[in-house]
Amino acid sequence: METVLGIRGPTFVMLAADTTQARSIVVMKQDENKIHKISNNAMIATVGDSGDAVQFTEFISKNIALYKMRNGYDLSPKCIAHFTRKNLADYLRSNTPYQVNMLVAGYDPKESLPELHYVDYLANAKSVKYGGQGYGAMFCASVFDRYHHDKITQAEAYEVLKKCVAEIHKRLIINLPNFNVAVVDDQGVHNLEPISGKL
Predict the structure, then answer these.
(1) Mean pLDDT across the stretch 116-144?
(2) Between residues 143 and 29, which one has the greater pLDDT?
(3) Which residue in 94, 124, 126, 147 has a CA-CA distance of 20 to 30 Å to 198?
(4) Can you give the chain as a three-state secondary structure string?
(5) Structural domains for the chain
(6) pLDDT of 124 above 80
(7) What are the phi and psi torsion angles at 50 (to 5°)?
(8) Across the strands, what pairs with 104?
């Protein structure tokens, strides 16, 4: 019942995630942050089983911090996506698989390139220009396809995400009123104005 969306521009990646925490027919809270900063230049948006999403995200985040402490530098976003996919694949073949879908976003300062990776609970991973996870993402593919272009600016990307959220509010029966938005670029990770249901 959750939704995360991502869009990659020439110098940035922007993520949006709903803030609803629900189980079955019960909404438990409306201020859950599903976008997590995992390094100075990377973030991850996770959806899925609530316990698995929190635990797996913290596991990845702490291991990336440990890598930086041991080696003195951050992993690149591409390496973070591969590390995440490998761990999901290992747990998939164990008795305790994680039911987590995610978007891994980052900016590689060495290559001066933004990265957006789609990773699902079956450990499929793909570098994408835009994408989403969850029920709401099904209504956004056509919006992304129509409005995304290679030279998209941050302001334009934010407007595309607003169009996606408006489509979700219009067509999805599940109530997802608010979306947090964060962007990563050469200045690091920072939050933008949330997108509210009152569009």
Answers:
(1) 95
(2) 143
(3) 147
(4) CCEEEEEECCCCEEEEEECCEEECCEEEECCCCCEEEEECCEEEEEEECHHHHHHHHHHHHHHHHHHHHHHCCCCCHHHHHHHHHHHHHHHHCCCCCCCEEEEEEEEECCCCEEEEEEECCCCCEEECCEEEEEHHHHHCHHHHHHHCCCCCCHHHHHHHHHHHHHHHHHHCCCCCCCEEEEEEECCEEEEEEEECCCC
(5) 4-196 (3.60.20.10)
(6) yes
(7) -60, -40
(8) 44, 117
Q: What is the pLDDT of residues 70-87, one digit of tens each?
A: 999 889 999 999 999 999
Distance CA 49, CA 124 (A): 18
Place of tokens 């990563």: 184
Phi, psi of 153 (to 5 degrees): -95, 170
What is the pTM (predicted TM-score) of this model? Answer: 0.92
Model confidence band, residue 23 (pLDDT cutoffs 50, 70, 90): confident
